[in-house]
Amino acid sequence: MRRSAGALRHNLARARAFAPGRRVWAVIKAEGYGHGMEWAAAALAGHADGFSVSCIEEALALRESGTAAPILVLQGPRTAADWERCARHDLQPVLHDEQQLGMLAGFRGELPGLWVKLDTGMHRLGFAPMKAQALFEQLRDHPAARRGLHWLTHLACADQTAHPQNAEQLDRFSHAVAELPGHRSLANSALVMSGGAARPSRTEWIRPGIMLYGPSPMEGEVGPERDLRPVMTVTAPLIAVKRLEPGACVGYGATWTADRQTRAGVVAMGYADGYPRHAPTGTPVLVQGRECPVIGRVSMDMLEIDLTGVPDAIVGDTVTLWGEGLPVERIAEAAGTISYELLTRVAGRLRVIDID
């Protein structure tokens, strides 16, 4: 697997271009969407305004690796001790639940910022928007909010620009916090790319995630269409080439049968490496810059491809599974999933080569 720090920084610059003047929480949770969390933080040091992670444990790992930038913890504290850890390590937690609010009552520490999440329609985490004023009055004099009490929400359908729920959620959020002080953050990658974050508002912070790594979050698009560059390119060697006669079956379950003389190749990549087992026959790979289809079922450590269209392919050639020249969205679509899942499932046994 090759990963490009230059591509990561380029994509961050694209996020800023979509939302000029906004500050950026670069989302590097889930091991930097499979690329390596500490690596992503180091690559974006001095370029992002802060980093966004899922949980306290991820935030602490960043601090231990030397990251000094602001860190937003999206799931916030889960225990009373977590509030103390946020203060000790200069973390900005998200408050989204009544139980957290109860634990906060016994905490007297000072935080660099406290963010309150409002549930404007996704119905996952967050307080009802109608509670925003009461929460402000309850929290404004608390030491945890002394250096800033801020507001955020998350859109459920931002990747579908015409979906009516987007406007409904934006209206609920804007109305709930219209008269309240503090920063606002609501723009994920999809809202950033749709232009929603660039509209005149008090949305100071954007939260780009998937777009930083190259894929487009928008339905029916691939990253290169928006000048996003793949940060991850997954490759594997061609380890065998053979000729199949008509009627020959390939792989477990004999699900694919040659209907003509076929030149087939075996690639040292399987579902134990993070390639989707359910990728069907026809899913593309690249060999010598030309597309070849997967044939038969993906195995644990190998998959088979039709090399008929690349007659000069030989053992030792590099096969691209996704990345440069082959957007991961295409493999995700073929496999009936999303690019996020493929990137985050890449196995640790792949050798990583850093470039740029």
Write the layout of secondary structure elements.
Elements: E1 2-4, H1 5-18, E2 23-27, H2 29-34, H3 37-44, E3 50-53, H4 56-64, E4 71-73, H5 80-88, E5 92-95, H6 98-104, E6 114-117, H7 132-139, E7 149-152, H8 164-177, E8 184-187, H9 189-194, E9 205-206, E10 232-244, E11 249-250, E12 256-257, E13 262-267, E14 284-287, E15 290-295, E16 303-306, E17 318-322, H10 328-335, H11 339-344, E18 353-355
Parallel strand pairs: 1-18, 2-3, 2-9, 3-4, 4-5, 5-6, 6-7, 7-8, 8-9
Antiparallel strand pairs: 1-10, 10-13, 10-17, 11-12, 13-16, 14-15, 14-17, 15-16
Give a structural overview.
With 356 residues, the chain is α/β, with parallel strands linked by helices. The protein folds into two domains: 2-226, Alanine racemase (TIM Barrel), CATH 3.20.20; 232-355, Lyase, Ornithine Decarboxylase, Chain A, domain 1 (Beta Barrel). It is 27% helix and 22% strand. The protein is built from eleven helices and 18 strands. It has an eight-stranded parallel beta barrel with strand order 2-3-4-5-6-7-8-9, surrounded by four helices. Strands 10-13-16-15-14-17 form a six-stranded antiparallel barrel. The protein starts with a strand and ends with a strand. The model has no long low-confidence stretch (mean pLDDT 95).
